[in-house]
Structure formats: C-alpha cells, structure tokens
From TrEMBL:
Pfam families: STI1-HOP_DP, TPR_1, TPR_11, TPR_8. GO terms for molecular function: Hsp90 protein binding. InterPro entries: STI1/HOP_DP, STI1_HS-bd, TPR-like_helical_dom_sf, TPR_rpt. Keywords: Cytoplasm, Repeat, TPR repeat. It is found in: Dynein axonemal particle. This is Stress-induced-phosphoprotein 1. TPR repeats lie at residues 140-173, 174-207, 215-248, 275-308, 343-376. Residues 71-110, 407-446 form the STI1 domain. GO terms for cellular component: dynein axonemal particle. Its main location: other. It comes from the Eukaryota.
Amino acid sequence: MSEPKISNRIMYLSLIFLYKEVISKTPSYLLSLLIRIFSVHIRVRAQKAQKSRSFPNPFSGTDIIPKLRADPRTRAWLDDPEYLALLAQLQANPQMMGSQLQDPRILTTLSVLIGIDSGADEPMDTEPPEPNLPENKKLAKEEKEQGNAFYKKKDFANAIIHYNRAIEHDPTDIAFYNNLAAVYFEQKEYEKCIKECEKAIEIGRENRADFKLIAKSFMRIGNAYRKLKEYKNAKVYYEKSLSEHRTPEIKTLLSEVEKIIKDEEMKSYINPELAEKEKETGNELFKKGDYATAVKHYTEAIKRNPDDAKLYSNRAACYTKLAAFDLGLKDCDKCVELDPKFIKGWIRKGHILQGMQQSSKAISAFQKALEVDPNNAEALQGYRACTIESANLDGDPEKIRQRAMGDPEVQAILRDPAMRMILEQMQNDPRALQDHLKNPDIAAKIQKLLESGLIAIR
C-alpha cells in the first residue's frame, strides 16, 4: 500500500501538534513510547529529505541560540562546547536527529525550539513504572503524579500534600523528597528546601538511589544557598553534585558562584586608607632607588584600591626604571583608561614608547597629554623630540633600521608573507601602491612602515 500523498512539512507540523498535545496530558511512563515513534518518523523523513531537501529542520533557524539562551532549561548548556558541537552537527545533518533523541538534552532542546512549555522552573523527577509494584508503591507513584500536576499549575499547597502522601506510602524513594524540596525552593523557603534535600540524600544512600538523583539533591542545596547569598556553601554543594554526576549545568553554576566569591573577596579587600599607606611606602622606596620593592607596595595599593589611576602611573614609573617597558606600558594604558584626564599617565606612556623606539605611538600619547594641557612643558618637549626623530629620514640608515626593527609591530608586518610580496610588488611597480591602499588593513601596515622610516615613497 502506497503512502498517502501529503507534504513533508504538513506531516511534520501535524506531528509537532500531536506531540504538544500529548506531552501535556500523557503520564511520564508513556512518553518513552512517544519518543520512539517521533524518533522513527524523524529518521524516515530525514532520509527522504536528502533527495527533496524539503524537510524542515528545527535546528536550522537563525534564532535558535537566542531561543535556547532565553529558556532556563537550555541556557546553561550553551556554555558546553560538546553541546554546541552537537547543535552544529544537527544543523548540518538533520538525519542525525532521530538517533540523538535518546539524549535528554536534545529532546529538551527540541521542545524549546518547537514551543513546548515545561510548566515549572524546577523539573520534577519522573520515571517509568516498574512491573508488579507492591500496592504501597503504586499508591505512592499515583500521589507523586498528582503532586507533579499541581506543581506545574504552581498550586504548591496541594503539591506538598500529595508529595507527603507519596512519602507516607513509600518513604524509601528519593524522588518524592526531591520533588518536595523543589516546592519549598519555589516558595522561597530555602532552609526547608535544604533540610528536605539532606533527607533525600540520606534516603537515597540507604536505598542505593541513582547517582543522578543524589546529584540533583546536592545541586538544589547549592541553589538554595546561592539564593541565601551563602556562596561558599553553594560552591561546596555544587562540587558534591559534580562528584556524583557531571553535567554542563552544574559546571556552569559552579563557575558562576566561584566568580561571585572571587569578586566579593576583592571587594572586601578594598580599603582606600590602607592603599594610601602602601602608596606612601612605595614613594619612599622609589626615592631611595629600591624600585623592585616599591613595585610590591604599589601592587598591594592597587589591590586595596583598584580604581585609583595614580597608583598604576606610579608602578609604571618603577617598571620603567627596571626596564620592564611592556609592564609599564600596560599600567599606563590602565591608568589613562581609568582617568583620561590624568596627564601624567599620557606623558609617562609617551616616554615609555619613546624608549621602545616607537616614535609614532609616542607622538600620539604626547598629543593626548597636550589635549589635556596644551601648555605642559614636558608633553611639548616629548612631542617635539619624537617628531624630529620620526621625521629624520635623512639620518643614518642603519640607526633607522635598528630603531624600526625594535618595534614589535614592524617585526610582525615584515614577517607576514603577504606583506612581503606586496612590498616586493611595490618596488617593481610603484603604481601598485594605489591598489593596495584601497585595503584598510594593508594601508595601515604601509603607513606604519612609512612612519618607521623603513620605506619611503618618492
């Protein structure tokens, strides 16, 4: 019997409609059958799509990342390279979709992309029924399903009643305690949530529960402590969760809370008064010529007050004396970033660049200083000296070459095979210059070589 003539797209959309309708009404233990049916359909249609190219791939849209980022069920997975690679494979090869539906992440991702609402912020623990269950366990499962239904409606009072009844019927199932803890979490009763999760872990250990369920209990304790702003406790329980079962979601949560702890420690360390004392000590050591020790005190001052631009300028002065020009330049950049009007930062940057034989960049730094104070003698002197040095192309060619080759940017340009070919072409055919100058990147590199004095246009 031949297959009815119906378009791939209509069949696909009809199946999605059926999926949406059934998933909201079907008990969890029947969903596995639905998944298998959906999987077979996906594989058959994807194979035919290789010829017709008409099968709609839900992973091919340009807006899938924003959709997945906006949904709490999938947001954390976007930080996992393996998950992103899997998405890319599904975008390129939709025929893989059927086989990948066994991965719960892909099933959840698909539900997000086709618009199925989870109905709750904290997912419930569901599992297929076991055959020939004792009467008490059957009753417990029924109570749990009723509790899940109320939970999805955010009727937490009734959900608690049914979860407690489930526990009365079967006090050995960790899932009931986890679900009860989820309700307390949604009600913002975080202390109750933690106690219920601790009970869940104890019951789970005693009854050899799945490590994934125990990991979920630890994760929820971590989430509760995070809500209570007890970040160090949250970190401990996220780590315990990872020790039970590693997931991208937990790794992301752990990274986030570690960053919060680090930021808080930095904030608690800030003390402008102690920073000022460290700066004064550094100033005294600088005057004595003990630059290395002065750096340590300026560094401590920066930790105590990281937004003080002057501290970076002072440390840059030490680095200059120690011939650590790269470090000094980095501090100058931070200094003028924090306070663009701090003229000493620009002047110090100009002197460092001048010492590094990067006259054109030094000129720019001195120009910035003169924008702050047009009459500053030190900035004027530095600007004039660099201008004369940069314009002195009729001097000793060897000195010009040495000065230019001391510039890391010039070195990088000359190591570029494409630029070397362009320079050779310009030498043989000067008219080629006009064509190359149309490319902004090449034009900037040629300008740099002109400023360094290595090349000249006659």
